[in-house]
Specification:
- The protein is mainly beta and 240 residues long.
- It has one domain.
- The strands form two sheets. It has an eight-stranded antiparallel beta barrel. Strands 6-7 form a two-stranded antiparallel ribbon.
- The longest helix is centred in the first third of the chain and has 14 residues.
- It is elongated, with a radius of gyration of 22 Å.
Length: 240
């Protein structure tokens, strides 16, 4: 048994290399956190008022109640061109209260490009690689309400008409470090930053396209930082 394990490790080490030309599929998971101060100031300057049901400021209902930090999950499908650059489509989800009636979350969907600066500089059969990421995305975030208590409700039941959210565009910046135990699989770690520009504030998330949204003006971006661990499968093109 021990000899078989050693033989497998030797085989993987001999066959491993950074991925070259071909399709790759990545699954990742990690933790994300919002940097909300600039966005809060932007909403305050627009003077969005209070929610009539809860008596809370609309700014606080979104920023403090509907944008928690926590776990995230993503999937990425791309094509690597000669080991130098890659283009990928991706979907990242940051859910919360999944089983509760106050469930909500954020989704980040878009495309990104990767550049592999080590290609051509180091031996081609190295067991590691590094890539820089830049992308453009659409962000949709929102919740299904909050629980009390509030100033106007001492109970802990769900407060209606308090679901809040936003949507807008985002620029992605980040990098990935990867290890290749074999040519067809790699494991990585990726810190990312999303510079989000919300364009609508949903004061009634369930009816956001039916008059339940307020256009957002002024400056003050929202930032989302994440660190994720990934597993990627690499598929080389078929020979001609």
């Amino acid at each position: 048994m021990r000899r078989s394990a050693v033989a497998l490790l030797v085989f993987c080490a001999a066959a491993s290399a950074r991925a070259g030309e071909g399709v790759y599929l990545t699954f990742d998971g990690g933790y994300g956190t919002w940097a909300k101060d600039d966005f809060r100031n932007r909403l305050d300057r627009q003077n969005l008022g209070k929610d009539p049901v809860s008596g809370l400021q609309n700014t606080a209902l979104l920023v403090d109640r509907q944008m928690p930090d926590g776990a995230l999950f993503g999937i990425h499908l791309g094509y690597n061109i000669g080991g130098h650059v890659a283009f990928e489509g991706s979907a990242t989800l940051r859910p919360y209260d999944v089983l509760g009636d106050t469930r909500g979350g954020a989704g980040i969907f878009g495309i990104a490009a990767r550049w592999y600066p080590l290609q051509g500089l180091l031996r081609p059969n190295r067991q590691f690689d590094f890539s820089l990421i830049a992308g453009m995305h659409y962000v949709l975030s929102g919740g299904n309400g909050i629980h009390g208590p509030t100033a106007g409700n001492a109970l802990t039941g769900k407060l209606e008409n308090t679901g809040r959210g936003f949507d807008g565009s985002a620029v992605e910046l980040g990098f990935t470090g990867e290890l290749y135990p074999a040519r067809w699989i790699s494991f990585g770690i990726t810190p990312r930053m999303y510079l989000v520009d919300p364009v609508r504030y949903f004061v009634n998330f369930d009816h956001r396209d039916e008059g339940g949204a307020i256009p957002l003006y002024g400056s003050g971006s929202l930032k989302f930082y994440s660190v994720s661990l990934s597993m990627s499968f690499h598929f080389e093109p078929l020979p001609e």
